[in-house]
Design a protein that fits this description.
Layout lengths: L1 H7 L3 H11 L3 E5 L6 H15 L2 E7 L8 H18 L3 E4 L11 H20 L4 E5 L8 H11 L4 E6 L10 H8 L3 E6 L1 E5 L12 E2 L5 E5 L8 H10 L6 E3 L7 H16 L7
Helix pairs in contact: 2-3, 3-4, 4-5, 5-6, 6-7, 7-8
Length: 276
């Protein structure tokens, strides 16, 4: 609800109230962005409990490849402390957004894996699990994400499966979700319009480029080209019973789009499921 907050000046507590009013049972927070995030986290924890809104996760960005290791780890430990104050059982962190010059994604893997292990062990001491999302272009397809989680090889660390983000790496979401099933500990559902570029390679306003130069634009859940229903069905039939966090990144008006997405998500949750 970044756009909504910018337009209305709503604070995080108002966003929580609105989410509950729409009907959501859970919420996850991105970097709180307040002068005293620990204090804010404690207040949000109390408020969410009062209105019956579960805090599912604390979601933050991170680059575990480029930069000083001590500073990287210190920042992540601080975010875990915030997650603890929130009462969040899960912290999601990114892994990298660009490769060092002359390095491959396999080279990056060797750098980040021991750092991720340190982060998840610190989180484990607080009773928190950690995960990374298929996000950030470099580690956005299922092959690289599987290689990452297998290399970390820690039961406290898993995959935040974003059913839409695979398109950023031009991977068909349904095939990618099948690969992700054994690793899934959290999930995001979002939708995109996916287009081939025109002959002049001009990107329309509101669209951005995929890894291979195709075009994406966020849209209302159920309105785009992501096979959301089939992906959710796969997750549920595989035994994933966690939160499905709705994301909206489109050009449509925030609140009407989120309400339509919520309605569609509730229909998905009502689908008959045959668990393996």
């Amino acid at each position: 609800m970044k756009k909504y907050r910018k337009e209305t000046g709503a604070d995080l507590f108002e966003v929580c109230r609105l989410a509950r009013e729409i009907g959501f049972d859970a919420i996850e927070f991105i970097d709180l962005g307040t002068p005293d995030p620990i204090a804010t986290a404690k207040e949000l924890r109390v408020y969410c409990a009062e209105i019956g809104l579960t805090i599912a996760s604390h979601t933050i960005g991170a680059d575990l490849v480029n930069g000083d290791e001590e500073e990287i780890l210190s920042n992540l430990y601080r975010y875990i402390d915030i997650a603890e104050a929130l009462g969040a059982p899960l912290l999601r962190h990114d892994v990298c957004y660009k490769l060092p010059e002359g390095k491959t994604w396999q080279d990056a893997l060797k750098i980040m894996v021991p750092r991720i292990r340190k982060v998840t062990e610190y989180a484990k001491s607080k009773g928190i699990r950690t995960c990374s999302e298929n996000h950030g272009y470099i580690f956005q397809d299922s092959e690289r994400m599987m290689a990452l989680i297998d290399a970390v090889d820690n039961p406290n660390y898993g995959w935040l499966v974003d059913v839409g983000n695979f398109l950023c790496a031009d991977e068909y979401p349904l095939s990618a979700v099948k690969n992700a099933l054994p690793y899934a500990i959290h999930a995001h559902v979002k939708d995109f319009l996916y287009r081939k570029p025109d002959e002049l390679y001009i990107t329309p306003d509101g669209f951005f480029n995929t890894r291979n130069g195709n075009l994406l634009r966020g849209t209302v859940l159920g309105h785009g080209d992501v096979p959301v229903a089939a992906c959710v069905k796969l997750l549920r039939e595989a035994g994933y019973d966690g939160v499905l966090s709705l994301e909206f990144e489109g050009a449509e008006e925030n609140i009407p789009a989120i309400k339509m997405g919520y309605s569609y998500l509730r229909k998905l949750e009502a689908m008959p499921i045959e668990k393996a």
